[in-house]
Every structure is written in structure tokens, then in C-alpha cells.
Amino acid sequence: MTEKTKGHGYFRKKKWAKGLASGIAIAGFIVFSAGSAFADEAVQPESKNDNNAYATQAGKTTGSQSVVIDNGAVTKAADKAKKAGVVVSETPNVDKGTDTTSSSLEQSKSEIKHDQDKQVQGLEATTTKQVQNNEAFKEAQEAIHANNQFVADEKAKHEGATTVTVTNDGSTATDGSADQNKKATQTAKQVLSDNQQAVTKYLGEKSKYDATVQQATSLNKAVDTATAELKKNDVTVSVVTRTVTSVAEVEALKKLNDQAIATAKGKVELNKAIMAAYTEKKKASDQVNQDADRKSTDLKNSGVLLTSKKQEVSSADEAKQIGKQNQEAYDKAKKAQADWQKKYNELQSKTSTEGFTKEVVLQALSLATANPEATVKSSASGSTVVTTSYISSSSGSSGYGRILDSTKVLKYNDVGNGWKTEIDYTGLNGLTVSTADGSKHSISRIHRKFEILNQGKTGLNDVYVLNDPTEGFVVARNDGIGDTSDYMKFRVTDTYYYNVDGKEVVFTASEKTPASITYSSLNYNKIGWEGAGAVNGKNVEINGSTVTYHKNDGYNYADNYNTEENVGVTWDTSDSPYQYKGAALGVFTEGTNFTTDFAQWDGSATPAGQTYWFALNTKVVAPVVEVPATAIITKTTVKPVKTEPVSAELVDTKNPVKPTLTLKTLSETKNQKLSASYHGYKLQYKPTVRKSVSDTDKTNTDGQTVAKNATQLYTLHHDNIYANLKKGDKITIIDPLEAGAVPDVAVTKAAAEKAGWGVAYDTGKNTYTFTVTYEGKHLEAPVITWKPIYDKGFYDNTYKVLVNNYEVFSNTVTNYTPRPPKPVKSVLDHSGKDINGAKTFDRNVTFRLTTDYSPYTKTLASAQALGKKFGILDDVQDKAFTVDHSKIKITAVGQDVKNLFDMYHVLSDAGRTDAINNILKELNLVPKGEFYLWVAKDSASFYNNYVKQNKNVTIDLSAKLLVKEGEIVKNDFKQIDFGNSYQSNLVTVEVPNVKPEKHVLDRTGKKVLDGKEVQLGDFVQYLLDGVTVPEKHDTLYQYDGLDKLDTKHDRYTGNWKGIIKGTEYTAEKELVLPYDVTLKNGKVIKAGDKIAKGSSYAFTFEFNQDTNSEFIKKLVTVKWDAKGGQWSYVINQDFLNSLGVKGTFDADFYIEAERIETGDKIENTFINIVNKQEMTAKVITRTPEPPKPKHPEKHALDRTGKKVLDGKEVQLGDFVQYLLDGATIPERHHMLYQYDGLDKLDTKHDRYTGNWKGIIKGTEYTAEKELVLPYDVTLKNGKVIKAGDKIAKGSSYAFTFEFNQSTNSEFIKKLVTVKWDAKGGQWSYVINQDFLNSLGVKGTFDADFYIEVERIAAGEVENTFVNIVNGQEMVAKVTTHTPEPPKPEEPGKPKQSLPNTGSAASMLPVVGMILGLLSLVGLRKSKEN
């Protein structure tokens, strides 16, 4: 609020104190220091002293005596000057004093006359110069107006057609002098010429532009037509827009488009031809693979080691050729497996026969062939290379050179406990391994580890490693102490390698491909006895061997002497058939490392020295059988044909930049008004005094705005006083200061007293009094040093002088201080939206600090003021966020100004250096903990180039929020100018504490099943309850969901539903949206209709897998990753962006699954991702095991099938039906993948007639959707739905298939495979796995078969039925008895086969249908809730 004080000439600010008495406020600042400052925006109080009253008396004096002086010549010259425009002012009369004599009076008049002449000359000279100024001003203005009128006319003429930019040249705004205005006239004429040329140039460019636009429009229409035609043929058309500048460019682009269209049409025709060829090849490949699957299943069931491989075919003929190869491999493998089974059975029957192993041993390893030239390399140092003849004990040579084939020996002298070495044998021949795929590979390398676990009690040993790996190693030791406590123990580990395609592969043993190693020549005599044992394998004994396995110590050895005398046969020679007498086997059925421990216990004999030979090989001492037969079945693949996508790039055009017109106006000039003054004269003396104000640079600051707290100097000029003084006169100067003008009392007083003044300062009145008694000496004027301490302050000052009874007031000087700046703090999200007071999911935000330098544009700053610092302080909330220093941006008017500042980042109070503390002290800043401080490097330059020009500085701090969910981050900053600090606004942002939810619902969606039981076959809905985005939030760019299904337990049905909601939205302007919204009053605004500005609205989108809406397709993308079991949705980023930062948002989804497996803890996880923030919710259910299948049964029936013969008598020649009553699968069950049956006939007593019958039943099935099946079904109401007809959704149905050996139905042939193994006497059936899978987990299932036999021999006859369901074998048996006939008679031959119980033709009317079992995948078995 301002008010004008009349008679003063200044606008006076009314300064109301707020809570502070002015006296107290001033007293608080008596100490004059650089840090003096009030709080931000403190209001300057009203002065309570005489300052305002003095201002009203400025320039006034008391008393006057005048002498009449004729001043006409002066006033006449002054009037003439006024008419010419000179600003003429009349100054106070010159007081010439009071003369006491005439001579002195004349002298005064003479002086006055001389002064009058001088005044007249000055006025006349000024008048002449003013006339010149007037003429130059007129000419300049006329030229400027001519130019500006031209600009106005041309702008009006052309601005409807283009952009007319008018700039202004201010150079013609001169100081008004004649010379400058003449220059302005020349400038105006040149600018007018330039403007005229600019108009001419524009008209030419516009003509060219119009022609180009016309041609470009025609081309764009052609592109649109071609694009539509190509897209009909699935051509991907991309349209590139190019800006054209001429008609020639448009015509060139048209040629390019024509070529691209022709090329695309050619590629479309080529792709059609490629796909036709691929279809033929794929059909042939599928037929071969179906046959390969059947053969593979049969071979696996018979025990063949099957290798499946794939081969890409390039033609249908090539696929058929592979089919023939598969047939040959199949026939060969069937025969080989039968031979292998025969040998296996033979060994199985002899597991109690001498010379045979006590269990059948398979052998995949062959280490029997001697390798005397093999290469051997050791990891242990210190070995000596010798030959076998050098192997010796302590008593001398041992003669191994005669019996060993090895040509090289590594000898290790004197080694003992803990000694280890690793040996690699290479360059091997005749050694093989058989792998699980049936392949036999040559061993390329044997890696053998040796370790002495116990050296014996009589010193170190010598170890001889033979280069033939089949011969092992020899150990020489000193004679022992003669009892079993003295023993040697060695551990040997073998690993076998072979090469495949140039790469080394390690052999892995298995149950079907074991490594079986012979432990032979295990002697027990007076010298001692030897033992060996498989450490990580199985030890197998041989019937009749003296060597047995001792579980307590893990070794195979003889319990008694087994010399030739003790055993009775010569067994310990390489050609003896009785080698098994001193042998056992180590069988390794897993792993890649095969470890054997060898031991030698000392006996009672005392030889001079002894050597012991330990060998690892597979030389046969008891029969073993190699791995089962092998077969390679090849499946074909057809390289998918991916036709090259056809695309065409067309070019449309963008119009050239429209020519624009730029014109220039000129600022008007001014006429320099010269000033002149004249005065009259008084002979009565009347002295005046003057006051001036300046800064420390001696710059006049009167009427200027100066920086707060910048030192100012009041000078009290009073020289005139001395002209009429006499000694003894007292001079008194009184100067009351403005409120908020804080003086430096010490400096002021010291300077004045030094000049001779008496000084008194009244603190309460903020008033100075200077006094002196005149003694003939002129004193220097007093200087008051002071500072303005308030923002937006008004400081005026007037002083008065008292000399005896004479009183005079000085002029009034005035200063202002700038209003307090208002720096702005904001917090921005990734899209640049201000989210102050909002909640942000994205923890990456930008804190923006923007200074306010607008108050300083007219501020006059001294060097002393500029010696204080300019800076910015951000006292950040400790541990609330981190700032990426590499991304800090400091800009002003769009330019990077980071190099203008020194930045200080302090993490804690303890981290402050002395230099930083000094800066903070200088700036009166007291931040706590972590803070950022930027200080301008050069205050003067920064002030002149940025502050004074109002070029505000913006600092962007790229930050990552560290607070927990639900916590609020607060931030502001201080702007520091001239060492004064100003607080910005406070911003807040919160990380939302929200979580998604996950629930499991029943099929109706009404019952919550979280943590509860879900039955096998039930359908559930998983609710993915996404987080609700709060009303004020950061700009959304991501709202995704991912559901991790446990696909072992749940089958995704493909059904899902989504609900997306938004509320609390407000139309900031009139809107048209592509979707319906609901206003706050309930009114629905349809898509495409206008929403009035200011309306509050909400929206809801409900959709599912069947929704066919282009808007929904763009809005949300749903994906199902069957392999990974992950269901996900992504909401369109552009849609999310369009929602802005105000309004709630929520997305919920329901996905349907069928429970297909049991489990105690079935977990489902939902991950909701909002702006990169992942939030997880889980739900758990359990599913109990279903009832177990009813155990199969086996019965014997008479030929009619009516009489049960279990345990009863059957006569020779009678025909019997064996009923194979398969297990009944309960209504809820595990997914079926196997339902097989095997009947073991006693072919000595029963002859299979070849007649059989089957009945397959299923009940309690429900159609989960409309179905078409390749077989008849019966509904619950008894209605029969024929094969190929539709079964309504929700229908409960059952099926029954009856068939026999004569049924000729393609469906039955695919459904069940029946085989008769005459040699093994086994009748079997296999139900198709795809059909079983199609039944799901809900619905009963049962298969019964009848097979017919003739009783051909007397005796107790047992028949066994093995029913295999999902790998579980269940056995049922039945026994009958046939007595010996009274006399030998040939039993009658059967006259009738097993009667049929139904007609395949009437039961399965699917002959000719193309539907295979794969068409059953749509079958559903569980009832709809």
C-alpha cells in the first residue's frame, strides 16, 4: 500500500510493523555486520522519529532580506529559451550576503552584473542547440513513421496467407541529440528499403510454393489408394513422409511409388506358389511320423534301447524313403531283442548254477583287449620309466616281463600313505562302451586315479603303473609282520571317455548300461590274501567261487585258503575254465566315476619280499549279457516355410515450409530537451545545504534501487554555511534516519570526530547530531555509513542545520530495496508433469529448482555488494532420495550454465570441511545433515549477465526416492542473492503403500477359496486384483500384470475377463473420447460425444477373450505363454499417458483354470507392475488325492460267458473265456496317459483261439463347450447323440465301445491296439494315449476284455492278468483244474468261435470320417458348476 505525502514530492510507503516495535527492531541491528538480515519478507516498520517531518521541510530555511536587482536581461534570455523548448528552471537567488557599506554593495552588484552576462550567454547558447535538436527530431520521426506505416500496410495485406513476423529495431530510439537523430533518419530510410525488398522476395517464393503443394496433394491421394489395395493382399505397407520443395521432387517420388507397388504384387504371387509346395511335403512327413510313433511305442514296450532322431526332408519321396528305413530298423530290432531276451532268460535260469553269477549281469563296458602300446601320462612327479622286466620286490626281480604285455611302466619309489596320482591312458584299441541309445563307442581315453589309503606296517612301497590299462598296476612291499593288522589298501577310480563328432564325451553308467568289472585272481594263502570291492557300485558273487562279498568291510575275498590244493582244481591261470573260483564282479549302474578298493592282508609266511598285481578289466570269468537290442527310429521334420513377408514402402509428401515474411519496425526517437537554469540575487545572505547518497563505489544512488544490506553513504554537504559565519558561532546538524536504515555507528563517529565534529547518536530515535563551534576552519562534511535491511523497502532522508537562529533543511534523497524474490520448487515425473502433493509409483523423479531474479532488473549494485555470494541451497531430506550427479542440469534461458557454479554436496554434518563451514557462515546458512549448495564462481559477472537481466536459473535434480512405501518426501530450497537467502515453496511426493491382491474363486465367482480345498477336475477363477492408482499420481506409462500358473496342477482353459475402471477425472476442456464415460450425476456420455469442460466423469471397460472391439484390442494386450505357464496383460502406454495425473485407475482380471493334479500346496503368483514398480500377491489352495482305481479282477468263464469257473474244473477240450476286468477309474482321477493290459497264458495247458472281445465304458462326463465327437454318446436322459453331431454345452454324457477281433473300424483301430505274442504266450492291449489324455480328470473309465482259449492239457492251470494304469502294475490271477482224461482221446476241435456281443457297424458309425483321435482334445469331462 502506498500513499503520497503532499508538499514532499515523493511517494511514501506506509510501513506497518508486524509484531515488532520499530525501536526494538532497530536496536537489534546496532551492530553493523555483513550478516545482518531480517527474516524472509519481514515488513519495514513506520519511522517513529522526525525523518518524515524533515522530508516535508526539505530545502526550507528561516528569515530573508532582499536587495532589488534588475534581472530582466537574464529572464528575457530565459523566456526565449523556454519558447525554443529548453527546460528552464529558476534556482534560488544567490545570497550575496549583507553588505554594510556602499562600496561593498557596488562590488556585489558588479559581481552580480558579471554573473548576469554570463547567465545570458549560457542561455543563448543552449537555445541555439535546442533549435538544432528540434529540426533533427522532426526529420527522424517522419522517416520512422514512413517505414512503420509501410510495415503495417504490408502486414495487413499478407498476414492472412502466411506468417508475418515483425521485429523492432530500437537503434532509432536515440538520446534526442541532433547528431543521433540525423543518424536515426539514415537508419529509417535504409530499413524501409530493406522491407520493400523483403516483400518482393516473398511474393516470388509464394508462387513456387503454391505450385508444389498442388502436385503433392495429388500424389498423396494416389498413395492412399495403392495402400488400401496392397493391404487386401496382406502386404505390409509403410508410408514414409518426405518434405518436398519443388514440383520436380514430387514427380520423382511418384516414379519410386510405381516401382514399389509393382514389386510387391510380384512377391505376393511367388509366396502363393511356395506355400502350395510346402503343404504337400508336410502331409507326407506327418504320415511317416505317425507310423514312427507307433513303432517306437512297441519297441519301448519290448525293452529295446531306442534312439529317436529327426531328419529334415526336402520332398514327399524323401519322407516315404525314411518310412521304409524305419520298417527295416523295426523288423531288425524285434528279432535282435528276441534273441537278447532268450540269452537273458537263459542266464536268469542259471543264477544258481556253478560258474554263473548269482544274478544276471549286464555289460556295457569292454576292457578285455590288451593294449601294450597305449600311451600313459601321470600327474604325479617322480616317476621313472622302466619295462616290465624291472618290476621287482625287495628280494630282486619278479618275472613279470614274461607274463605282462605292457611295454612301458611308470615306477614310483618309496611312496606311502596319502600318495596320489592321476593317469591318462590314450592311443587305445579294441576297448568300447555301449551307451543308453544303443550305440557302441571306442574308448578314446581312460582317466585313472590312484591313492594309497594304507601302506602297511613295514615301510614304504614301490608302485608300478603299467601302460596297458587292462593290466592295472603292481605293488612291491617289504615282508609284513605276519597278521591281518598289517595290510595295504589302494583306491582306484576309473572314468571312461569316447568321442562324438570330434568332442570328448564321458561315459555314464545306468541300469541298462552298467560298467561291470571283473575282480579275478583273488588269492588266499600263507603269504596273505587279496580282496577287491566296488565302492560306489554293487558287488556280485559267482556260484562256486571261493570269493564272497563281505558287507561289513566292503570287500570280495576268500574266507579260507583257495590254493589249488585247497580247491582241487587249477584256477589261477589265464586259460583255466575255473578262474571264477577266485573271482567276483563289481557292477556300476550310475555315475561317471567307478571306484574300486584293493587290499592285501599279510599272512604268516615270511618271504624275503613280495609283489602284488592288481588288474581292472572285463575279461570274462563268468557269463554276462550285453545291453539289450537297439534301434534307431527316425522322425521327419519339414523346415517350416516362412514366406518372405511382403512389404512396400511408399512415399507421401509433406508440404514445403510455407514462405514467411519478416519485416522490421523502428522505435520512435525523442527530442532531447536541454535544460538551463537562471537565478536572481539576494544581498541578504541565505546559505543552503545539500545531501547526497552514494554506494561504496561513490556512485550516486539517489532515487535508485539498491541491494538489501548493501552499504550506502549519506554525505551532509554544508559548505555554504561558512560564508557568513563568525568565530564562536555554533553549527548543529541533526539527521533522523529512516526505519530499517541501520548505521555503522563506529565508522561514522570515528570519521566525524577526526574531522572535528562532536557526534551524538540516539539509538532509540535512530538519529545523529553533529555539532561544532566555528573557529575559522571549514570542516569536512559528515558522512553517515548505513545499510538498508528490509526487502521492498523505502529509505528517504533529510537533515537540517542550525546556525545560531538560522535553520535550513537539506534536500531529500531516496533509496529502494527490491521486493523479495519468490523462487519456485517443483517435482516432476518422467513425462515432465508436476506431481507436487501426489503419489508416485515411479521412484525416479526430478526435483526442479527455479530462481526468481525479476526483482533485480533495476537494482544498482556496488562492488562491495557484488562481493557477497549468489547461490542456491537445497537442504535435502536425509536418506529420502539419491541424486544422479551425472544427470544434474543447470540451465538459464535454455543454455547450460553449470560451469558458472561451484557445487558442494555434503552428506552429513560431520562431512563439512572448514571451507564449506566458512561459506555457510558467510551466507548465514544452517542446513542440517545432507545438502546441496551451488555458489556462483564470479558474483559480479553472474549478477550482470543473469540476475540483472532476469535470466532465471533452473536446476534439475534427477533423483531416485529411497523411502518406504507410504512415506512422504518433502523438499524446498533457498535462493541466495547478495548473501541474502529466500525460501522457496515446499513440495511433497509420496511413494504409495498399495499392494495387489490375488484370490481364487469358484467358477461362479461368488465363493472365495483362498487356502481352501479344490477338487480334482473343478474349474476355478483366479482374480488378479491390480492396485488402485490413487487420485493424484505420477503419469502412468506402465500398468502390467503377470500370473504364474502352476501348470502341473492347473490347466488354463483360455477363458478370461478384464475390468478396467477410472474415477475422479475432470475435463479440463471440452473433450471427445473414444469410449463411454459416466458423469457424476449418472448421465452416460457415449463415445464420440462431447464432454463439457469442468465435468467430473468415470469410465469402466469390461471385456473377455471373445470381445471383438478395436478399442479394447488397442487398450490391452493379453498373452498366454503355454511353455512357461505365464498369463499376462499389458495396458496400452498411450492410453495410460492420456489419463494425466489426476484420477483413480484400477484393472482387475479373472482367468479360468481346471484343476488337473493333486497337491498339498498349489501356489499361484500374481505380479503387478506399475511404472516399473513390481508388487506381488500369492494365493494357495490344495487338492486331495482322488479315490484309488478299483483293483482289476481276473475270472474264468464258460464259453457262454454265464458260468464262473474260478477255482473249478475245466475239462480237456473245453473252451474258456478269460475275463480281464480292468481297473475302474473313479469319477475324479489323475490325467490318464496309460491303460494297458497283459494276459500271461499257460500255453502248455491253454491254446489261444484268436477270438477276443473288448468293452470300453465312460460315464459322468460333461461337455464344457459345444462338442462334436467321432463316436456315439448317450445323454443323461437316454438320448443318443450320433458321431459327428453336436453335443450341447453343459450336457452330461456317457459312452460304450464294444468290439472284437473282427471289428473293422478306423476309430477302433486307433483307439486300441491288440497283440498276441505266440512265442511268449502273452496277449496284450494298449489304449491310445491321446484318447486317454482327451478324457481329462473328471469322469469314470473302465475297459474289460474277454479272450478265448481251449484247454489242451490236464493239470493246475494259473492265468495272470497284469493291468497297468499310469505306470502302476496291478495283478489279478485265476486258477482252474483239469483232470486227466479217463482214456486218451483226442479232444474235439472247436466248432464255434467266441460269439460277438455287438456290431461294430451299428455301434461306431464313423467309417469314412476324417476325424482322428487328435480331434478328441476338445473333450471335457467335468460338470459345469
Please tell me about this protein's structure.
It is a single chain. The chain has 1425 residues and is an alpha+beta fold. The longest helix has 57 residues, at 102-158. The chain is built from 17 helices and 89 strands.
Oligomer: single chain
Q: What is the mean predicted local confidence, pLDDT?
A: 87
Poorly predicted regions are 1-40, 1384-1425
Helix and strand content put the structural class at alpha+beta
Radius of gyration: 57 Å
Give the amount of beta strand, in percent.
Answer: 35-45%
Give the overall form: elongated
Helix content: 10-25%
Total strands: the figure is: 89
Count of DSSP helices? 17
Major beta sheet summary: 10 strands, antiparallel
End-to-end C-alpha gap: 79 Å
Structure keywords:
1425 residues; alpha+beta; 10-stranded antiparallel sheet; 7-stranded antiparallel sheet; 17 helices; disordered N terminus; disordered C terminus
Summarize the helices and strands and which ones pair or pack.
Elements: E1 2-4, E2 11-13, H1 22-27, H2 51-56, H3 72-83, E3 87-95, H4 102-158, E4 164-169, H5 178-231, E5 236-243, H6 247-301, E6 305-312, H7 316-349, E7 362-363, E8 365-366, E9 375-378, E10 384-386, E11 392-393, E12 396-397, E13 409-415, E14 420-426, E15 432-434, E16 440-454, E17 461-466, E18 473-477, E19 487-500, E20 503-506, E21 515-519, E22 524-525, E23 528-534, E24 538-540, E25 547-550, E26 555-558, H8 564-567, E27 584-588, E28 594-602, E29 610-614, E30 625-626, E31 630-637, E32 647-654, E33 661-666, E34 675-682, E35 690-695, E36 704-706, E37 712-717, E38 730-736, E39 741-743, H9 745-755, E40 758-762, E41 767-773, E42 783-788, E43 794-797, E44 800-803, E45 806-809, E46 813-816, E47 824-828, E48 838-839, E49 844-850, E50 859-860, H10 863-866, E51 871-874, E52 881-883, E53 889-892, E54 895-896, E55 901-906, H11 914-922, E56 931-936, H12 939-947, E57 953-961, E58 968-971, E59 974-977, E60 980-983, E61 987-990, E62 997-1002, E63 1019-1025, E64 1039-1044, E65 1050-1066, E66 1071-1072, E67 1077-1079, E68 1084-1085, ...
Parallel strand pairs: 3-34, 4-33, 5-32, 6-31, 7-30, 36-46, 36-50, 48-61
Antiparallel strand pairs: 1-2, 8-15, 9-14, 10-13, 11-12, 13-17, 14-16, 15-16, 16-19, 17-18, 18-29, 19-20, 19-28, 21-27, 22-23, 23-28, 24-27, 25-26, 35-37, 37-42, 38-41, 38-44, 39-42, 40-41, 43-46, 44-45, 47-49, 49-57, 51-56, 51-59, 52-57, 53-54, 53-57, 55-56, 58-61, 59-60, 62-63, 63-73, 64-72, 64-74, ...
Helix pairs in contact: 3-4, 4-5, 5-6, 6-7
